[in-house]
Amino acid sequence: MEAESRIAPLEEVPDESTLLFRVEPADPDGDGDEREAILVRDPDSASDATVACWLNYCQHLTHIKLDKGSGAAMRNGEIVCENHGAYFEADSGYCTYGPCEGATLSEIEVSVADGDVYLTDDDYAFVGRGPIEDEANASDLTSTSNVEF
Ligand code: FES
């Protein structure tokens, strides 16, 4: 595993919340905009070393962040969007309840090795821990939603 793709020690991924970090597209011809992502433990896994990773944006209104900087809310193994109460399974990203029921969070590939979590998704490069500081540099996700009302 490449040291620059190391996101965090596995032990820092919380049990009932999320760990926030930043990625950017790996494609040099891409938009280059940073995006936020979250690590979450799979509560149903027998292994403590099973983590999932999702882009940090609700599928109802895709500019709304699930983890607003201090960890996403979780109930019974599901990530809760606090805006309108959508629930997403931590392990599959599938929305089981709420205005975007049936939608799925955007997955980012990660792997656990030697007690650390690494970004292994060819489409993204690791930028750093924590939220995007400069929102003007963030991807403009305000106009997209996969759900119409
Ligand atoms: S923005 Fe997440 S449920 Fe509406």
UniProtKB/TrEMBL annotation:
GO molecular function terms attached to this record: 2 iron, 2 sulfur cluster binding; metal ion binding
Lineage top rank: taxon: Archaea
Residue ranges of domain Rieske in the record: 20-119
Pfam families: Rieske
Keywords: 2Fe-2S, Iron, Iron-sulfur, Metal-binding
InterPro entries: Rieske_2Fe-2S (IPR017941), Rieske_2Fe-2S_sf (IPR036922)
UniProt name for this protein: Rieske (2Fe-2S) iron-sulfur domain-containing protein
